[in-house]
Design a protein that fits this description.
Largest sheet: 7 strands, mixed
Structural class: alpha+beta
Number of helices: 9
Helix content: 10-25%
Number of strands: 23
Oligomer: single chain
Distance between the termini: 26 Å
Radius of gyration: 24 Å
């Protein structure tokens, strides 16, 4: 998530000033200028005038709140969610989708140009449905003693307080419709005061729920959950601690999803991409950029359970996936067998450690894909340059580390050929992207 202001800031108490926003940052904050200083104003859109009051101030920039908005932008829309502006999950439901997407793409382009000197467009954007896109969501659970009821929902912005969520239009409809009956079910449990969170996931095999409970559940509570599971066709898993996952019903089918025509079975705790529509397009774009051939040997770093690895394996001589989470490696190996792919090897290795002694590092590859976490892939960039692949595709959830890591490839003789912004999380400040690097100056759009 891109931020343009520091968490180390001091509060100020100033008078009212009038400004006009001229831009929007990735967080959905309006950007205005006053006496040479950049001011970030939540809730203000480009072209809108407002009276504002500074709340935080630094030497080069400040943050402010709106006292009174004096005009409305044509890009201002009515939020779909009744919890918007209270729930901290979404920041931009008041912003037309086109402006959200273009603002994020501009932020991405600016960061890459500033850090690398390369001027490149992040369009065309890989689009998502505006609403109903989230197939996974974790809701906090908190018993409110005074009201004698359970709160179930997401955190308020910049607090630990829960917003009791009754509707969530960014969730897949199959999950959103479970919110009310699930809340009623959990509120009836004897263990209601000792619940941690519940995670909802929509798999191809149907919805599932993972319930974190802090004490062992009694037989009566398990029976209440079984009735809910049957009535609402939800597979329920019990999580007594962070490691012991137990299916409520013995006959539950393992969840799975599809990508590029393959079936990927996963554990309810495994990471899968939240936005299925964007994931399908993202995988297809990565495979097209790599221009995969039957003789290729491909390396997939930070491979997870094989979201890219396995689709690539259907098109090339061999693929090696390297991942730091052991459970994901096990899932990847299982899915390779399930899909009858014998040309895939998975390695469980720490890619932040000294990778040169790791068994995969001695092999040769002519194409590389990497999909690191927010911290980026600083520890492997030099090794990728040493491998000298023809093409590198970098999938990123943090444009700052993408820009940083790009410099290693550019210094190693690669050209930044294409960049695309991924609208993975509409209405939020998350900015996902993917980039193609090639040893040749031209590539595939």
């Amino acid at each position: 998530m891109v931020q343009f202001y520091s968490p180390n800031r001091r509060s100020v108490n100033r008078g009212i000033i009038s400004v006009t926003a001229d831009n929007l940052d990735a967080q959905g904050q309006g950007i205005a200028r006053h006496q040479g200083k950049t001011i970030f104003i939540p809730g203000l859109l480009p072209g809108e005038q407002a009276q504002i009051q500074l709340t935080e101030e630094k030497r080069q920039f400040a943050k402010a709140k709106i006292v009174k908005r004096l005009s409305d932008s044509p890009h201002r829309v009515a939020p779909h969610c009744p919890h918007f502006n209270v729930c901290g999950g979404c920041q931009q439901q008041h912003v037309a989708t086109e402006l959200q997407v273009n603002s994020k793409a501009s932020v991405l382009e600016h960061l890459i140009q500033r850090e690398t000197g390369v001027r490149i467009s992040a369009h065309p954007v890989i689009h998502s449905p505006e609403y109903g896109y989230r197939r996974r969501a974790r809701l906090g659970l908190q018993y409110h003693a005074k009201q004698r009821t359970l709160l179930m929902g997401f955190r308020q912005s910049q607090t630990n307080d829960l917003v009791n969520i009754k509707h969530c239009p960014v969730m897949c409809p199959e999950l959103e419709q479970l919110l009310h009956p699930l809340h009623q079910c959990l509120n009836r449990l004897q263990a209601v005061k000792r619940l941690g969170h519940v995670e909802l996931v929509l798999a191809e095999s149907g919805p599932l729920a993972v319930l974190r409970h802090l004490d062992p559940l009694k037989h009566e509570d398990k029976q209440t959950l079984r009735i809910f599971s049957v009535q609402h066709k939800v597979a329920i898993y019990l999580l007594g601690d962070e490691k012991s996952l137990e299916p409520l019903m013995e006959e539950q089918v393992a969840p799975w999803y599809q990508v590029d025509g393959l079936k990927l079975v996963f554990s309810p705790q495994d990471f899968i991409q939240v936005n299925d529509v964007v994931n399908q397009q993202m995988v297809a774009q990565a495979l097209a950029w790599l221009d995969l051939q039957p003789t290729d040997r491909v390396l997939d770093l930070f491979c997870g359970m094989g979201n890219f690895t396995l689709p690539m394996a259907t098109k090339v001589q061999s693929v090696v996936g390297v991942e730091g989470v052991a459970g994901l490696v096990v899932s990847g190996q299982y899915n390779a067998q399930l899909n009858q792919l014998s040309n895939v090897d998975f390695f469980h290795e720490n890619l932040e450690a000294d990778i040169h002694q790791q068994p995969w590092a001695a092999q040769g590859f002519n194409k590389v894909l990497l999909d690191p976490a927010r911290a980026g892939a600083a520890g492997v960039m030099a090794h990728i340059v040493k491998l000298a692949p023809e093409k590198v595709v970098y999938v990123s959830c943090n444009p700052t580390t993408l820009a940083r890591d790009s410099k290693a490839l550019l210094a190693g003789g690669y050209h930044l050929v294409s960049v695309r912004m991924l609208d993975m999380f509409p209405h939020t400040g998350h900015l996902e992207s993917m980039a193609l690097f090639s040893r040749e100056p031209t590539g595939i759009e």
